[in-house]
Backbone:
């Protein structure tokens, strides 16, 4: 591969950029958030809904290299331990945010859910290089929860490589 400039070479070495051909060599973990009417998964405007701890998604083991939010048009339903849920539509996703945090609950990234929908990005995946995170401190929230209910759920595809 021919490097265009020292800046591109440095960014490539640090893994800040990479070719967009695909996700060869990466692992995939599907993560579901089944919404409920009460409790930790209830959807209220401005309320953070946290992910459960995951033994695979820990920053001492993996680097998150990409994340995708699956909307209703991409796949209408998801099966969870709490029953079948309807995925959120892209219109509701425009009101939601994914929040990545570290062990001190410091926000590393806050990304609109709609930006994580693959088909809305022209089929281009959202690449990341998150190596300092605490999965159970990560969350989603909605600036307006109208149209989102306990019948819905959120499905994320998390791509990672091992350290």
Residues:
């Amino acid at each position: 591969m021919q490097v265009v400039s020292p800046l591109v070479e440095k960014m490539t070495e640090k893994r800040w950029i990479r070719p967009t051909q695909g996700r060869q060599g990466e692992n995939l973990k599907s993560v579901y958030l089944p919404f409920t009417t009460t409790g930790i998964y209830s959807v209220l405007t401005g309320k953070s809904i946290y992910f459960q701890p995951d033994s695979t998604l820990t920053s001492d083991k993996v680097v998150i290299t990409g994340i995708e939010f699956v909307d209703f048009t991409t796949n209408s339903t998801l099966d969870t331990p709490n029953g079948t849920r309807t995925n959120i539509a892209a219109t509701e996703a425009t009101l939601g945010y994914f929040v990545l945090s570290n062990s001190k609950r410091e926000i590393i990234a806050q990304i609109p859910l709609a930006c994580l929908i693959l088909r809305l990005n022209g089929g281009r995946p959202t690449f990341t290089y998150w190596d300092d995170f605490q999965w159970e401190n990560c969350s989603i929230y909605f600036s307006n929860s109208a149209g989102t209910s306990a019948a819905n759920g959120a499905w994320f595809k998390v791509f990672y490589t091992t350290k």
